[in-house]
Write a structure and sequence with these properties.
The structure is a single chain. The protein is α/β, with parallel strands linked by helices and 255 residues long. It has one domain: P-loop containing nucleotide triphosphate hydrolases (Rossmann fold, 3-Layer(aba) Sandwich). It is 38% helix and 26% strand. It has a six-stranded mixed sheet, sandwiched between helices. α3 packs across α4 and α4 crosses α5.
Length: 255
């Protein structure tokens, strides 16, 4: 068995609301091998985004432990955890957060400046990272004038630039057409296989499941998992497919 980079032990997450306490995650246990591609999937509202926020250090669990590279993430205070996240994780969001007055190269380079790199080194690393995702020729443009797929590739370059081992991608294809989405997934596969990074991907697209080394299915806050060579139970896939089709029909009806 490959060495685990991430281990989740007995994680519960509850939120207090005006209507009472809501249980979002229930006794979640899994490990993610170093150098693997893991897909977290499930219907909307299932708890998968909350789980990703726990993994990324943004949402302390109500109970349990999240271990990354031997470090207990939530035994750290907030400042130390923030520093650990900045040093360890590259994050690709569904919605990109750009500094709109800066061009593509500067947006990719700015985390490097903040991490202590000098201007020349940061720009060189950022240029290499943009080249890696096929966006070097767009370095001087403003990111807001790019297409959705191009922006996601720049976001990928920003996540890669600091050389972090763990790449977390939260629905990076959610707002893209199928062609652009497939390009982003192929980039993530290249990052995992060629650069030996550990990739955790949240997606609702079950067509990507066969590409993964590990699958984590979240439904009503509970977890089912399968590894490469195993197949997620058909009832899970059929249930998710039905929910996605219903949501698509509802969205189409609004048009």
């Amino acid at each position: 068995m490959a060495e685990s980079l991430i281990t989740c032990r007995g994680v519960d997450k509850k939120f207090a609301t005006k209507g009472g306490v809501v249980d979002v995650l229930h006794d979640i246990n899994f490990h993610i091998p170093r150098g693997s591609l893991t897909i977290i999937f499930g219907p909307s509202g299932s708890g998968k985004t909350t789980l990703m926020n726990v993994i990324s250090g943004l949402e302390p669990p109500s109970k349990g432990n999240l271990i990354i590279d031997g470090h207990d993430l939530y035994s750290m205070d907030a400042d130390r955890r923030s520093h650990f996240r900045a040093q360890t994780m590259g994050i690709v969001h569904q919605q990109n957060y750009w500094i709109k007055s800066l061009n593509v190269l500067e947006n990719v380079a700015i985390p490097l400046y903040l991490g202590g790199k000098d201007r020349k080194s940061a720009r060189l690393i950022a240029t290499e990272s943009l080249d890696r995702v096929g966006m070097k020729d767009f370095a001087e443009r403003l990111p807001t004038v790019l297409s959705g797929g191009q922006q996601q590739r720049v976001s990928m370059a920003r996540a890669l630039a600091a050389g972090k081992e763990l790449i977390l991608a939260d629905e990076p294809t959610g707002n893209l057409d199928s062609k652009s989405g497939d390009m982003i997934i192929n980039l993530l596969l290249s990052i995992q296989k060629d650069l030996k990074r550990t990739v955790v991907l949240v997606t609702h697209n079950i067509e990507y499941l066969p590409l993964s080394d590990k699958q984590l299915y979240v439904h009503d806050g509970y977890l089912a998992e399968a590894t490469k060579g195993e197949k997620m139970p058909e009832e899970i896939l059929n249930s998710l497919k039905s929910q996605i089709e219903s949501l698509t029909q509802m969205q189409g009806g609004r048009g």
